[in-house]
Amino acid sequence: MSLSFRNIVLSILFIALALLPVYAKLAGDGFALTLFTRIIILALAAVSLNLILGFGGMMSFGHAAYLGIGGYAVGMLAHEGIFNGFIQWPVALLASAVFALVIGALSLRTRGVYFIMITLAFAQMAYYVVSGIARYGGDDGLTIYDRSHFFTPLNLSDKVQFYYLCLALLGGTVYLTWRIVNSRFGLVIQGSRSNDMRMRAIGFPTYRYKLACFVIAGMLCGLAGALLANHNEFISPATMYWTRSGDLIVMVVLGGMGSVAGPVLGALALLLLEEALPTVIAAALYPFLGVNASVYGEYWQIVLGPLLLLIVLFARGGVDGLLQDLSVRFTRKPRVLSS
Amino acid sequence: MTLFIEQVLNGFQFGLLLFLLAAGLTLVFGIMDLVNLAHGSLYMVGAYFAATFAALTGSFILGVLIALFLTLLVGMAVEVIAMRRLYGRDHLDHVLGTFGLILFFDEGVRLIWGPAGLSLPLPSWLLVSVPILPGITYSGYRLALITVTLAVALGLYFLVMRTRIGMLIRAGASNREMVGALGVNIKLLYTLVFGLGAALAGLAGLMQAPILTVQIGMGENILILAFVVTVIGGIGSIRGAFIGALFVGMVDTLGRSYFPDILRMLLSQNAASTAAPALSSMLIYLLMAVVLVVKPEGLFSPGHR
Q: How does DSSP assign B107-151, residue by residue?
């Protein structure tokens, strides 16, 4: 860790996230706490997606399925009267792992566009299946009457405690991902992204490596799903709709695929942008439309869509790439290659 | 028996409709190597145009023709403004860029037409029931759909395999630089191909409009089915898209109507009615999984096109 501009920004960001509940308490801003809890949970999902997308080169378009599976594991067990987190969460992880294993085993037989379409199709299958189960709410979703129960001091219904739990899990996931990426296993995964045939030629059974990586990413996202269900106290098929998978990809690319922490920046950027865009649009239209301008803030996605296209075309490095460029400019040293 | 024949025809008609979408997807992928998620948006746009202009002109046929032409224009504009810049890039870029386009189109449609759906009423001459076999009648509109889509499929085959433009399209698919070097305006060709794909999607959308309602997001569900079709048929192959589409249309339609009954024979009444809706929506994905296990590159991969 050098003291580059990027690392300073990341450190400040982390401290800010850690101190957010204090601000929320002092300012009485409950919304900020809720918003940032959601951002942190989705950041966790994006970090898990980055493991296969950024480092493994596996373009999964079905990652939101695990959000739903993890969430439904919690929701269904709660519906049956089991609130013990030590049962709920392992089940969530296990269910995600099994789904990832089956889907991965089939999809990893293919490459490129096929892989995108197949993961998308299987995630959509999961969506329809869940929508069809009447016992657990079907289309309407499932209300979760209490958050997961753990041992006594830890109370998930306490919003501050829950926030710190999510933040700690995000930190843990980023660390775990960093360790995985820099391990022998991670190097094989990255090698197979660059040249799968060569990796196989030197004797690595890359299919198995990639499948293991796919399952790990699925499990981590399942954890995010369990957190999300607890956060919303509600789970519905919409959680796993394919546009949610698209959102996760946007977070990864927006943040920067090259680094472990990138997706966290991406999640922050995308979700804060979503919060801010309606206001920005209304303000921009105010000189022309006056009071009516606020109506058009509702149509913020019409700005977000082309913005995504522009980011794809002109800013592929994402936020993290930008920070690294700035680091170089500030230190005038050779570009910092961070992991 | 009557019901069975009707369901088979419905499956056939749905399959042909899927073919129109899948053909556009697979053409654009085979020739430009572009993954276009926004294909479903063009389907939606076609339906909205048709509903609007049919109401405006008071004529179904006129509305449909205007809608087709406008969807073609929208497609070509999208190609010139956005898609052209994505050629030759990573597939992930295509996915993200076209995902942005979906957001744009969905929100744009909501801005122009509002959140409530539209309907495209059929003219009286299409509302008739036609006797197809002694004692069996079938919806005249669906028969018209089958005729039109079959004609379009034949026309497409003729266009790609038997005309000069089709020859250029096929040549462009195998070697872009070489075709360009021989003096063909490859940019214009690509714009035309994209517009053609858009018009096919628009046609599918406006034909489905009288059966379902015209609403935002209508293109997204059917787009995933079109993906399944292209995966089964082999991406880049029009013949594969045709056979895959009929296969998926048949399995989906027949599965939804008969699978619950079959399940009821195997399981208890109660278990069957709980599991049936979930399981019958899984059928086509299971079909896709089986195809993938047997032939990972699809049934008609472009290698032997």
A: HHHHHHH-SS-B--PPPGGGS-EEEEETTEEEEHHHHHHHHHHHH
